[in-house]
């Protein structure tokens, strides 16, 4: 009994070590980015009106992950095949939420704004006015602007742009006044409009009681981050709707705290945002996002299986000039390499970058049997050399012995009638040539010929040395050009 338990433990330990060896910094970054994305999505779903619909998509995702992990190829293939349809479904179902996210991003503030004192005054005024209207059973609907734009969702109304005061709120919602129907839109200390029509919610199950006024409050709270206060004409209660949820307040005085919290969040200071981050709910969401990202990464990106791929790879020989030998005949210029690694590593790899290179100046290549191994291959991270065909290269070499030989300048053509050719003097007069003594010998080296028909007087020309065949070569750093001075004499007429 002890042995299998030990083996299991050993296996877990091995898997863990392999995991640690395989994981790269970019993988950690990958997980962090996905976690952040999931954190935003989960947070949004907590507030989203369409979150019930999410359940079906979540089931499909879970089935897909299980199918992938357990190798249920047909199921995996089916879900992948339906991917576009599922994506369209997600876009249709979550379209209003997606628009909200885009709105939210476009209204993002990179530097937090501290809360102005005026909001404190506004919350006191609104609390007092609303409490009084509730006591008097005057129906009211007051919207406080959040960060998001609401223009797309609200309709009609009369422009006001006046400072919030208790008498103003009372006069607006006075049932005998023509503008009491609809909602008041406010931003900070100002009333922007009254008599505004808000979108109605379709999630009527969230309303235990209440008619269209409460439905309208809930409706707007589902579309943007505004806070909506409802005073029920029928029951004299105060309710607040926010982030797609509506709740009736226990006591009228609770409203002040809700308003203060709302504004604190709206004009969020860094201190509050850190505090919020540390809140248990946010922490839970962050943990859930991190775990989900890790599971997704393990299922889709973790290099679990080793795959083998073979490529035709060019061979380069370098520093041949600095050796006392040359390679005989034609040398192999290509070999087939088999590499091993994860599918993920192969995905980011560019086979055309691969090259086998031999530094022939190195002392190890004495016998010129060159083994192809990982030292000669520019392997990318994550891939290993498995085998090469052929596994080694057999190259024949030629040894070269230096010989100092005179330079001779041949001449061609006929010189002009009024001139007489005297001499073509090379400079330097001798050069050192490397000679493969096993197959050739040399007693002089010729330059390109001097064409006498082009000579019009004494002149100096550059002529290249003519070394034909594989048995001769010039040492490194020797110029192949020779300076030739052509001496002529004028024939007196
Ligand atoms: N879409 C809307 N946008 C803004 N205000 C609306 C909207 N629909 C209804 N109202 C307001 O709600 C009033 C009707 O309230 P209704 O009695 O139907 O709702 P309720 O939720 O039961 O409210 P109460 O508890 O005050 O009776 C309308 O007179 C109007 O002022």
From TrEMBL:
Keywords: ATP-binding, Cell membrane, Membrane, Nucleotide-binding, Nucleotidyltransferase, Transferase, Transmembrane, Transmembrane helix. Residues 95-252 form the DAC domain. The keyword Protein transport does not apply. InterPro entries: CdaA, CdaA_N, DisA, DNA_integrity_DisA_N_sf, DNA_integrity_scan_DisA_N, YbbR. The chain crosses the membrane at residues 23-42, 54-71, 77-94, 285-302. One of its GO terms (molecular function) is adenylate cyclase activity. It is an enzyme of class 2 (transferase). It comes from Fodinibius roseus. It comes from the Bacteria. GO terms for biological process: cAMP biosynthetic process. Catalyzes the condensation of 2 ATP molecules into cyclic di-AMP (c-di-AMP), a second messenger used to regulate differing processes in different bacteria. Gene3D superfamilies: 2.170.120.30, DNA integrity scanning protein, DisA, N-terminal domain (3.40.1700.10), YbbR-like domain (2.170.120.40). It catalyses: 2 ATP = 3',3'-c-di-AMP + 2 diphosphate. Probably a homodimer. Its EC number is 2.7.7.85. Belongs to the adenylate cyclase family. DacA/CdaA subfamily. This is Diadenylate cyclase.
């Amino acid at each position: 009994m002890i042995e299998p338990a030990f083996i299991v433990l050993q296996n877990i330990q091995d898997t863990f070590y392999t995991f640690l060896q395989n994981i790269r910094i970019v993988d950690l970054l990958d997980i962090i980015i996905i976690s952040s994305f999931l954190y935003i999505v989960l947070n949004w779903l907590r507030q989203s009106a369409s979150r019930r619909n999410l359940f079906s998509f979540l089931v499909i995702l879970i089935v897909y992950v299980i199918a992938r992990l357990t190798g249920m190829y047909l199921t995996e293939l089916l879900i992948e095949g339906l991917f576009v349809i599922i994506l369209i479904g997600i876009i249709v179902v979550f379209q209003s939420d997606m628009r909200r996210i885009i709105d939210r991003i476009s209204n993002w503030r990179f530097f937090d704004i501290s809360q102005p004192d005026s909001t404190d005054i506004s919350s006191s005024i609104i609390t007092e006015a609303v409490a009084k209207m509730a006591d008097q059973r005057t129906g009211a609907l007051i919207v406080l602007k959040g960060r998001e734009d609401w223009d797309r969702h609200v309709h009609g109304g009369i422009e006001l742009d006046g400072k919030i005061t208790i008498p103003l709120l009372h006069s607006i919602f006075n049932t005998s006044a023509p503008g009491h129907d609809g909602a008041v839109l406010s931003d900070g200390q100002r009333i922007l409009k009254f008599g505004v029509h808000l979108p109605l919610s379709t999630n009527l199950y969230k309303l235990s009681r209440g008619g269209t006024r409460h439905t309208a409050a809930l409706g707007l709270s589902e579309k943007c981050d505004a806070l909506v206060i409802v005073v029920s004409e029928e029951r004299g209660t105060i309710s607040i709707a926010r982030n797609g949820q509506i709740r009736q307040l226990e006591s009228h005085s609770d409203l002040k705290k809700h308003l203060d919290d709302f504004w604190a969040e709206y004009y969020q200071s860094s201190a509050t945002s850190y505090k919020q981050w540390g809140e248990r709910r946010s922490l839970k969401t962050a943990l859930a996002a991190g775990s989900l990202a890790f599971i997704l990464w393990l299922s889709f990106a973790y290099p679990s299986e080793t795959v083998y791929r073979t490529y035709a790879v060019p061979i380069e020989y370098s520093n041949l000039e600095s050796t006392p030998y040359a390679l005989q005949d034609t040398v192999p210029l290509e070999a087939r390499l088999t590499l091993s690694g994860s599918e993920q590593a192969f995905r980011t790899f560019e086979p055309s970058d691969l090259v086998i290179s031999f530094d022939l100046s190195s002392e190890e290549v004495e016998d010129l049997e060159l083994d192809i191994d990982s030292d000669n291959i520019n392997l990318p991270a994550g891939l290993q050399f498995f085998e090469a065909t052929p596994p080694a290269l057999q190259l024949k070499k030629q040894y070269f012995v230096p010989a100092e030989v005179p330079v001779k300048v041949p001449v061609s053509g006929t010189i002009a009638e009024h001139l007489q050719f005297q001499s073509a003097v090379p400079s330097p007069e001798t050069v050192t040539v490397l000679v493969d003594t096993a197959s050739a010998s040399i007693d002089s080296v010729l330059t390109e010929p001097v064409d006498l028909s082009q000579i019009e007087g004494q002149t100096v020309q550059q002529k290249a040395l003519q070394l034909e065949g594989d048995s001769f070569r010039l040492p490194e750093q020797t110029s192949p050009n020779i300076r030739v001075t052509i001496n002529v004499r004028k024939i007196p007429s």
